[in-house]
Amino acid sequence: MSVATAATLPVAPLTGTLVDRFGARRVVILAQLSQGAGFVAYLFVGSTPALVPSALLVAVGQRMFWSALFTLLAEISAPGELDRWYGLAGATQNAGFGAGGLLSGLAVAAGGPAGYYLVVAANAASFVLAAGLILFRVPHPERATADREGKGAYSAVLRDRPFLALTASNAAFALCNVMLVVGVPVFAVEILGTPAWVPGVLLASNTALVAGTQTIVVRIVEPHRRTRALGLAGLLWCGWCIGTALALSVPASLLVPYLLLTTVVFTLAELIHAPTSNALAAAASPEALRGRYLATFQFSWATASFVAPGLFTLLLSVGPALPWATVAFLALGAGSWLLWLEGRLPPGAARGASEDVLSPAVRSD
């Protein structure tokens, strides 16, 4: 599965090109069908070599989906609603993770080996259903299209230094984000000595909070400039890292409620960052090349996912507080960098969503 996932890294830039030429809606439908086909193929896997093409189909579809989805949301959203669409996407994603985990566990517990086949078949059906819903229920948006002869390719993105700086800062934020999954379970169980069930409770509380409050937080944040909201997210993540490191001195009897409290701080940063960062990237992208721009922006998440496990392990081997001190420094630096970058982004990109509605000039930008 690692080989299949690594093989999909070139898919993101290719997806950006396809989105700019054929529209994000068609690419999202293709991505869903690819994942559905991969899960159908899983039903017939009987050996390790046969696993690779099935995993590859799913991984390619997943990479295409996340590289095209945010462009599709940008295309169908009305002026001023982009942050809300991205917030809704994050809330439904977390609700899906929670419901999927629960239903899969029940299916396997009740059906044994047959339960696994049921889960895989249900996944295949859900992707085909999703593709059909997008095909028949999502209108084909009017949009500017990139030059069909290939002008304005990725060279335009690479020349856009403010956007590359924005992507780099988001890589630091994405590293903060993945640390809840990558770093906290090891730190809580192996270093702090908590019971093995504690990381699951922390992750479940995070998922529930995101699913239940994401749209509320977006409405609170949207009147404010996106860069400054992200600066606040960086400050909150910095506080979360410091609080996690201070858990080393918390009495064992108070560790679980203390870690739950720090998880709330992490979640608030995530609630602000996820929709705001994607909305800022979309607003900073020229419409005709938005597919390429947002596909490039998604590399910040891929980079963080690739770097986080090795970086955390290396720093933890030096000292238990060092991973958190390092990530706190990156979070604070990324937030400060965004405030400096605010005036260098395209006009109107850093404005709050409510300003997009109130100002026709911003919409024309």
In words, what does this structure look like?
This protein is 80% helix and 0% strand. The relative contact order is 0.14. The protein is an all-alpha fold and 365 residues long. α5 runs antiparallel to α6. The model is unreliable at 357-365 (pLDDT under 50). It starts with a helix and ends with a helix. It has 16 helices and no strands. The protein is globular. The protein folds into 2 domains: 2-137, MFS general substrate transporter like domains (Growth Hormone, Chain: A), CATH 1.20.1250; 160-348, Growth Hormone, Chain: A (Up-down Bundle), CATH 1.20.1250.
Quickly list its features.
365 residues, mainly alpha, Growth Hormone, Chain: A, 16 helices, globular
